[in-house]
Amino acid sequence: MSGKIKFIEVKSEIGAGTRGASLGVDAIKIAALDYGSSLFNRIESVEIKTENQMLFETAGTPYAKRIKGIVAIYDRVAKAVSETLKNKDFPIVLAGDHSTAGGTVAGIKMTYPKSKLGVIWIDAHADIHSPYTTPTGNVHGMPMAANLGEDNLANKINKPDKETVDLWTKLKKIGGMSPKITYKDIVYIAVRDIEPQEAYLLKKHNVKMISAAEVKRIAVEKIVRNALAHLSHCTHIYVSFDVDSMDSSISKGTGTPVRNGITERDAGKLCVRLVQNEKVCCFEICEVNPTLDKENLMAENTFEILQRVVNQINH
């Protein structure tokens, strides 16, 4: 990718079950200040208007909480990502909760509608629920299902009302097309907390999974080659890095920490090595939650990874 990096700040947390992810972006900026870094001075940044005021209202439907606000944010994120790509710049999305990642994908597809888009999802969770299967109703468990246009009716446990179904359909169609990706366009890395409804889809579609244990055991270089080889049929690749992919001993400052994750060193190496590939057109970091943390540790770890990614892209 030529052009310069542009930060897209999405301080939204209405898709999460735990409060505080909307503060993640500022926590990363504070980490930058503590390190004496001028990163946020040097790189142009655009901030997406959020709907976080909805947190003070009722959640609306139990099977896709605050989805009305999320539809609005998807739309804004998609436009910002698309505009950045059309300017031949490289969008780095700094997001609160992971629900808005569907908006990022919509933005890439709006820019390159004929492109085959690969997704590398580094996360403790597969995020492949729909309002029909969600155990929590939190939309940050649904962005991959939105990208895939997946309802998973075979494993339906909920009966969402008409309004919810209509908004979910809208969410899937943002960017003017659904589905935006297929199962063979996905590589999951470090996913280890999966509900049965999700496990059914991953097995049925034989989705490429690279476990946290494999990342520990095999050199990152090999893991990356393996992931990129799986997506060799794709023309563009989007990398989404959820900080809960890291082990819960490190990742206290995130809403849903999970044991047996990857180390921050491996996470950094993975992200840096992935953005070296010229097909990678967008990188995203999400789910830093400083309210659950001590000494802003998660944001500091995340900032170090972000700085290395930026240096690599500018290289």
What are the SSEs and their pairings?
Elements: E1 5-10, H1 24-34, H2 39-42, E2 44-47, H3 67-86, E3 90-95, H4 101-111, E4 117-122, H5 143-148, H6 162-173, E5 186-189, H7 196-204, E6 208-210, H8 212-217, H9 220-230, E7 236-242, H10 264-275, E8 280-286, H11 297-314
Parallel strand pairs: 1-2, 1-3, 3-8, 4-5, 4-7, 5-6, 7-8
Helix pairs in contact: 1-11, 3-4, 3-6, 9-10, 10-11
Brief write-up:
The protein is of the alpha/beta class and 315 residues long. The chain has eleven helices and eight strands.
Please characterize this protein's 3D structure.
By secondary structure, this protein is α/β, with parallel strands linked by helices. The chain starts with a strand and ends with a helix. The longest helix is centred in the first third of the chain and has 20 residues. β5, α7 and β6 form a beta-alpha-beta unit. The mean pLDDT is 96. The chain has an eight-stranded parallel sheet with strand order 2-1-3-8-7-4-5-6, sandwiched between helices. Helix content is 38%, strand content 14%. The chain is globular, with a radius of gyration of 18 Å. It has eleven helices and eight strands. α3 packs parallel to α6. The chain has a single domain, classed as Ureohydrolase domain (Arginase, Chain A), CATH 3.40.800.
